[in-house]
Amino acid sequence: MHDTDLAHVGGLSYLNPSAPEPYASFIEQIERVRPYLGELERWIETLKHPKRTLIVDVPIVRDDGTIAHYEGYRVQHNLSRGPGKGGIRFHPAVTLNEVMALAGWMTVKNAAVGLPFGGAKGGIRVDPRAVTKDELHRITRRFTSEIGLIIGPDRDIPAPDVGTNAVTMAVMMDTFSMNRGGTATGVVTGKPVALGGSLGRHEATGRGVFITAREAARHQHIEVEGARVVVQGFGNVGGIAARLFHEAGARVIAAADHGATLHNEAGIDVPAALAHVAENGSLAGFPGATPIDIEDFWQLPCEFLVPAALEGQITEVRAPRVQTKIVVEGANGPTTPAADDILKDRGILVVPDVLANAGGVTVSYFEWVQDFSSFFWTEDEINDRLERIMVNAFGAIWRVSEEKQVSLRTAAFIIACHRVLEARAERGLYP
Ligand code: NAD
Q1: What pLDDT does 2 receive?
Q2: Is the CB of 257 inside a 6 Å radius of any atom of ligand 1?
Q3: 221-271 residue pLDDT tens
Q4: How far is the CA of 234 from the centre of ligand 1 (A)?
Q5: Which one, out of 7, 139, 292, 377, has a CA that is 20 to 30 A from the CA of 93?
Q6: How far does the centroid of ligand 1 lie from the alpha carbon of residue 37, in Å?
Q7: Burial of 127 by CB count in 10 Å (0-12 exposed, 13-18 middle, 19+ buried)?
Q8: Is 80 in the pocket of ligand 1 (CB under 6 A)?
Q9: Which domains are seen in the chain, by residue range?
Q10: Is 200 touching ligand 1 by the criterion CB < 6 Å?
C-alpha cells in the first residue's frame, strides 16, 4: 500500500470498514453514563472534548535517498486526574479519530482502575513492516521530537501499543533525553529493563486479561481448566494471554493474527505457536492448526472469546453469531456499542477493555513510580500488586453492575466518569 492510498483506508481498522468511527462509539459509551452522574452531569461535555490534539508531520530521508512524510498524532483527552498516559500505535490505518477514541478510553481506564493519570494516546500512520529498521528508527526519533512539545515525565507519558515495543520506547526515551539535555527515564514506560523499565511490564496486559477472565469465570461458575479459548491477535496482549490460559489448563482452540486465522479443536500448542510467530513474524505457516474462514472463527463455540488485535471487530453483524460465554476485551474498543447490546441481550458477559486490558497501564504506573524513586521492585512484588489492583477493580465494577443492573462496561464508565468529573469539578474551570 502506498502512503497516498492511506487516506482512503477510513477511520477504522480496514477489517471492518462498515463499523462506526471509534470516537462515535466512545461518545455513545459516555452518553450511556449520563443518567448515573447526578450533579456531575453538568460536566459531561468535558469527556466528549479532547483537551489537546497535536497533529505532526514526520518527514524522513528513506534509505534510497527519497523523502517520505508520515502523519503522526498525540491526543491528550483529559488531564484532570494527572499527567496523560497511553500508548503509541504504528499502523497503516491510524487516523486522528481512532487516536481520539483510544485517548478517551485511556482516561476511562486509568480512572476505573484508580491510577493517578489522565488519558492520552498517539500514533503514526505507517506500516512498520513496510519500512526498513533504519527508516523506522528515524521515524520514531522525528515523531518523538515533534510531540516533545507536550510529553514529559510529569506531563504525558507514552507506552507501547500496536506496532511498537520496548525498542521503540528506548528510542523515544533517548530522543526526548537528548533534546532535554539529561536522561529522563520516566518519559515513557514499557522500556527495556536496562533503561529503567519494569520487570513484568512486557507480560502485564496479557496477565491482566487472564486475571479478569478468571474473575469473570468465577462469578459465572465456569472452570478455566479445560475451557475453550479463541484469541484474535497473537502479539503482546493476545499471545501472552493465550500462554497464561494454556498454562492454566485451558484449550486455545483458535488464534488469528494479520497473517493467518487458525483452528485446532484439540488445542493449539501455544508455546510452539509463539515460537513460530517470534521466528516468522506471524502465525502464517504454523503447522499445528488448520486455516479457517474469519467469519467461522468468530462463531466457534467457546467459553472465552478474546479479541486482542484492533477495534471494531465484534459488530452487530457478528454479535448475534458469537458462541461464547465470556468476551474478554484484550484490545481497545473491539466491540461496537450496538454489538454490546446484542451480547447483553444474549446473556454473554463482556469484560470491557477499560478493565480487561488495564494490567499494562497498571504496571506502567509501577514503572513510572520506580523511575521517579530510582528504586526497583522484584517481579513477584509487581505481579502481586497487579493481581491485587485488578481483582479489586473487577470486584468494584462487578458490584456497581449488579447494583445498577448495567453491563460491566457501563459500570466501569460510571466509576471512572465520576472520578474524572469530580476532579474536574473540584479543580474548577480556568480562568
Ligand atoms: P501487537 O502489535 O503486539 O499485536 C497485535 C496483534 O494483532 C498481532 O498479532 C497482529 O498480527 C494482530 N493483527 C494486526 N492486524 C490484524 C488484523 N487485521 N487481523 C487480525 N489480527 C491482526 O499489539 P498489542 O500490544 O498486543 O495490542 C493489541 C491490542 O491490545 C490493541 O487494541 C491495543 O491497543 C491493546 N492494548 C495493548 C496494550 C499493551 O500493553 N501492549 C495495553 C492495553 C491495550
Answers
A1: 35
A2: yes
A3: 999 999 999 999 999 999 999 999 999 999 999 999 999 999 999 999 999
A4: 7
A5: 292
A6: 33
A7: middle
A8: no
A9: 50-182 (3.40.50.10860), 202-356 (3.40.50.720)
A10: no
